[in-house]
Amino acid sequence: MKNILIIGSVGQIGSELTMELRRKYGSEHVIAGFRKTQPSEELANSGPLERVDATDVERLNEVVKKYNIDTIYNLAALLSAVAEEKPQAAWNVGVNGVFNVLEVAREHNCAVFFPSSIGAFGPTTPLDNTPQDTIQRPNTMYGVTKVAGELLSDYYHKRFGVDTRGLRYPGIISSVTLPGGGTTDYAVEIFYEAIKHKKYTCPLKAGTFLDMMYMPDALDAAIDLMEADPSKFKHRNAFNVTAMSFDPEIIAAEIKKHIPEFELSYDNDPMKQAIAETWPNKMDDSCAREEWGWSPKYVLAEMTKDMLEKIAVKLNK
Ligand code: SER
Fold first, then answer.
1. Model pTM?
2. Which domains does the chain have, with CATH numbers?
3. Which atom of ligand 1 is nearest to the CA of 183?
4. For ligand 1, atom 6, which residue shows the shortest CA distance?
5. How many CB atoms lie within 10 A of CB 159?
């Protein structure tokens, strides 16, 4: 039986992935690791909870031993815009933390999931149909840590045989936990503002295309990859995965189909804009499709409808 540790279980992806893994493998087998932010009641009451910080290798060791962990999902990270504000902290969690997790996995024979990102690409990357294997020279600290994480994960597999696997996630859209300080956050905020005020001021310019994905697909992608038969893998880490690509105008037009009065305006955030312009417009995810059967269920129309319904319920509107 799998015993899973989630590092970063209160974060944007972790909060939902932990619950999904508990449903799938049984609550007592899925340990929710958190650092500072208090877990929600749902998370706290549904299974084991441990204070664990990727930068504290001794504590990590203790928890892995205590629960006989065989799989670690390492979701601890600072998102791109916050990482630009706090580059030292971003390096510590995103590189030293990843190194610690891989070391503990090597010692205790654990599989490791590592979420990389569209942020692992940079201004010299081909931005249309961005290939799986291409130039990666990001100019953000977030991107630097993600490339380092991809390379370290590959290295630990090649050198020590650790079963490392990972994805390059696009912007993740969800109605549950808000992202904090990412460049793609606008694609979540727009839904809250559409429901609350029927208007939204976007920090990215019209024409800024980015890959996106709805959370249910993001959860399936992680779990399916960790369960996939590795005999078909040509890659292991950092699979490009995407579900849709849009700019602010396109998502606003989709929201207008449900809320005709909705109005979009712009107030550009130069830092986020500069970051977004170095990220792919649309990734090629054919390797993930071929090597382990990746296929998203939600495209723009279904995602928009579901987000608007769920957020209306959440906000009592
Ligand atoms: N959603 C992330 C960010 O914007 C990208 O991986 O930082």
1. 0.97
2. 4-171+213-240 (3.40.50.720), 173-212+244-281+297-314 (3.90.25)
3. 4
4. 117
5. 9
